[in-house]
Amino acid sequence: xxxxxxxxxxxxxxxxxxxxxxxxxxxxxxxxxxxxxxxxxxxxxxxxxxxxxxxxxxxxxxxxxxxxxxxxxxxxxxxxxxxxxxxxxxxxxxxxxxxxxxxxxxxxxxxxxxxxxxxxxxxxxxxxxxxxxxxxxxxxxxxxxxxxxxxxxxxxxxxxxxxxxxxxxxxxxxxxxxxxxxxxxxxxxxxxxxxxxxxxxxxxxxxxxxxxxxxxxx
Length: 218
Fold this sequence. Notes:
- The protein contains six helices and six strands; from the N terminus they run βααβαααββββα.
- The protein is an alpha+beta fold.
- The chain has a six-stranded antiparallel β-sheet with strand order 1-2-6-5-4-3, covered by helices on one side.
- Helix 3 (about 40-50) crosses helix 6 (about 160-190).
- It is globular, with a radius of gyration of 16 Å.
């Protein structure tokens, strides 16, 4: 099972994200168990995650929460293009050094995040709307005995007082519903990676509309 860990577990590591997003605050840091994972298995982990982002892998409570969230966003204009990347905020890709700019990563059509960069042991994706500009950072960390595990950090820049209030309001839902469900799905994806067709291709989202999979901070 995953474990919420101290922020220092993220800030103390030499991640490239530090040089790019120093103006973001760290909202959550979690560790996910990936038994048997080795130092070169980060791409396999990412592929396994992409194999589990389609709607059928989401729990009923999570689907309900995000159906409500997308409906509210549509009613109140939270997710309009001018409130997102290239509108209200600039993409983090505009800040990247040349080496990271050449490694953007894979866009998964089932999630609302946009890739920023992907390297051998970390990647970052971003999402912006009227409430927040957020980053999902994934890293690959040695944990002893030659094994590695997945770390996830949610970095946020709330949009003023409204954004701060919104983040405070959704915090219990993230910790009680979203993260536990995400933990089970991500860890199961790793265990089933050889059977899930996780060859690096994202599962296509059918039916149109909003992506079904939730971001870590929404």
